[in-house]
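Why show two proteins at once? Because comparison is the fastest way to build intuition. When a single record is shown, students tend to memorize it. When two are placed side by side, the eye starts asking what differs. So, the first record is below.
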Amino acid sequence: MPDNGHQASDIKPFNELKKISNLFFLRSLEDHKSSNMKAYVFPGQGAQFVGMGKDLYEKFPAAKDLFDKANKILGFKITEIMFDGTDDDLKQTKVTQPAIFLHSVILARMLKDSFKPDMVTGHSLGEFSALVANKSLSFEDGLKLVSKRAMAMQKACEIEPSTMAAIIGLEDNIVEQSLKDIGEIVVPANYNSPGQLVISGSVKGIELACEKLKEAGAKRALLLKVGGAFHSPLMEPARLELSKAIESTKFNRGICPIYQNVTAQPVNDPEIIKSNLNAQLTAPVRWTQIMRNMIADGAKTIVEVGPGTVLQGLFKKIDRKLDTSSAVIEE
């Protein structure tokens, strides 16, 4: 057997150490629970609007510096499109994802000392914003990964025509069961809230699934205006491309746990975070489970950081008593 530089006896203690480290972290989270823990949540694609971030750029020199740095990293002036472009300009994949990321992350930075999360999460793209906000990733590395992600997803969309649809008013298990014998690639993609599940797959598969799910009792089955089947096996080419970038990027232990899309569980181990990120593009966003787990772990205050208020609405569907708001800079 070739010597790869590590004996089996060396590897086992290392793996056990990782297990103990993560167990210690989870116990610390349990001990840290209070009656009013604060969760910061970061939106994903679809929340963009023309003018986003312009107020930050004009009011805060530190924000201007970060936007200017982003222009250099991306190789084009994304600020011109964000602040004064058209809706169509902003919908370009190479623009949309970095734009939302920048708005969210720079807003979090400008909160300064008032940004004190007990936990963070982000919806799909928003997971990268959350990782930068909780200091697991640097601003520069986060932006580079998001840009790489956008480009890789666009290329994957061009390989095979694909799309997504929102299924309203049907239990998750009924949707899951109904998709099993469609005969095309169709999978659950976003578990957004109870009674709202987005499915993803081939164009023919989505059309067949929508008809079948309406027959099964869905109140609505809405085709979404998206460029491809995100969070499905059809994103495998993009996952492979992005995983190389993720593996070569430095991740740190964050200032608080992040509830990741793939597992819906709190994580702070850099290697586990990487592994979950590697799986994200072809796995469903378990948002309903994330919300329930955060609430079960003590979250009472939800602060949405970035464009829109969609995530606040989804949390309210789980618990109307939650204190939800958009992040506001105290001047």
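Second record. Ask yourself what differs from the first in the token line.
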Amino acid sequence: MAERTTEKALENARQATIAGGEERFLTLARGDMEGFRRTSATGLRLIGFLLIPASAASAALAEPIVRLVYQHGEFSADQTTVVAQCLAAFSLGLAFNGAMLMLNRSFFSLQSPWVPTAVALGNLGLNTVLDAAFYHFGAWGIALSTSICNIVATVALIQLLRRRIGRVELRETVRSTILTLLAAGALAVVAHEVWAGLDDTLGRSIGAQIVSLVVALAVGVGVYLGVSLLMGVRELRPLRSIAVDDR
């Protein structure tokens, strides 16, 4: 579910920020550096706007998601808890994983593929060290190690991109990220409480689990969009334009 969410979010971000596809992105890098900066920064903010709430929802509803998908036959409740912990830990790095893909594309467009390659190699070494340190915590420690590596690699790529092209609208990106985190926090709290109430009321048959989870996610998304609108999150605008264009 997390992988499908990532793929869909990245596709939406691509449509919103690179209207003419990869060829236009490459053209911007070659002839319009200001446009390239703007496109890269907008892409990062849109990815955050899409994937931070996905991370929050995955973490808040990790146990019911895993229970619905896997807890059948010999898959026990104890195993559900273990896998849910892994999903929650992995969710921490979901948005950063999406940002890394966007930043990699930026460097490829600048004809500097060696930069993300070097960062990836360094990240591989860091991941090895953190896996060795965190596996004592249990299976979720490995997922947490991956998330931390995603965060570190994203920060490194942003700093290297700033050195290459100058400013990347960092202040606006930080502002957008803070507002998105607040809205995603509201999503997580509301979605979990709605699920908990429905879970107590409807029980845990397959149908009841589906209803509880779908309703909780729908309400959570509604809260996220509503809070984002109230706080004036600007990333709603290009997404609204996509919805209009798709009609």
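One difference worth noting in the second protein: Confidence is low (pLDDT under 50) at residues 13-21.
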